[in-house]
Structure formats: structure tokens, C-alpha cells
Design brief:
By secondary structure, the chain is an alpha/beta fold. It is 49% helix and 22% strand. It contains six helices and five strands; from the N terminus they run βαβααβαβααβ. The protein has a five-stranded parallel beta sheet, with helices on both faces. Helix 4 packs across helix 6. 30% of the residues are buried.
């Protein structure tokens, strides 16, 4: 039985599907839900030239992340389940988003992690990577992976 379910949200379709499934599980298990959104600022440091400052870029990422977390929180609230939110800014170039999610799963502590995946293959996977795959590979907790449609 799961009492604490951590769900990673990022505004994508697969993330929304993962949230929907996590809410269903939380209702069924009478579990608490933690919504986590990780803002990854490391790509900003990899860009050579951008038409705006890095500070503006970071501010926009953080605002968008807070807005997405609030949208997801409204869905959890409407479902009448116990939940809280966690907003994390990943400023560490050596740390991946999957590391942040797994660290939070241990720290909270979650009984289950729910995450969406786009299911990319080949070159797209090579260049874009997979947060979900990293979470699964490093997880100390059970992980439920929700695939996109």
C-alpha cells in the first residue's frame, strides 16, 4: 500500500497523464501526493548567444515552473486529495533533473514515484535524453512510468 506518492510535473502531455494516474492512485490508496517541478537552468549555460540575458531566461523558467505547479495543484485540490508541492531550481551543472527527483523521493520519503515519459528512441533519445529513464535507473523507490499516447 502506498501512503506517499511523488509525481514529477513539467506541463507536457505525458506529465499530465502521470498526474492524472497519480491522483487516481492517491484516491484509491488514501495516500498523500507531492507534486514536484524541477527547473533545470543548466541549458542556459550551454548557449553561446541568446537575444536576452541569462537572468531573464532563468526568471522566465522559474515563473513558468511556478505557474505549472499551481495548475497541477489546482487539479489535486479539485480531486480532494491530500497534497503538497515542491519547487526546485537545479543550478548545479553536475546534477541532472533525475538526480533531483530521486533525492526528493528519498528525502520526503515517497513510497512510489510517478513520472511520464515521451518514449523517444534513436537520435531523439540520444540528444534529448530521458529524465524518466534516469529516475528509473537510479531509483531507490518503486517507479510507475506513464507513457504518452
Amino acid at each position: 500500500m502506498y501512503k506517499r506518492i511523488l509525481v514529477a510535473v513539467d506541463g507536457s502531455e505525458t506529465s499530465n497523464l502521470a498526474l492524472k494516474e497519480a491522483i487516481k492512485l492517491a484516491k484509491d490508496q488514501r495516500a498523500a501526493l507531492r507534486l514536484i517541478h524541477v527547473v533545470d537552468e543548466t541549458p542556459a549555460y550551454m548557449m553561446v548567444e541568446v537575444p536576452y540575458s541569462i537572468n531573464e531566461y532563468q526568471k522566465a523558467l522559474r515563473e513558468a515552473g511556478r505557474k505549472e505547479l499551481a495548475t497541477c495543484a489546482a487539479k489535486a485540490k479539485a480531486a480532494r486529495i491530500k497534497f503538497d508541492t515542491k519547487f526546485v531550481v537545479n543550478e548545479n551543472l553536475a546534477q541532472r533533473v533525475c538526480d533531483v527527483i530521486n533525492r526528493e523521493a528519498k528525502r520526503w520519503p515517497a513510497d512510489l514515484v510517478v513520472i511520464g515519459t515521451h518514449g523517444r528512441r534513436g537520435v531523439n533519445h540520444l540528444f534529448l535524453g530521458s529524465v524518466a529513464e534516469g529516475v528509473v535507473r537510479l531509483a531507490a523507490k518503486p517507479v510507475l512510468v506513464i507513457h504518452g499516447r
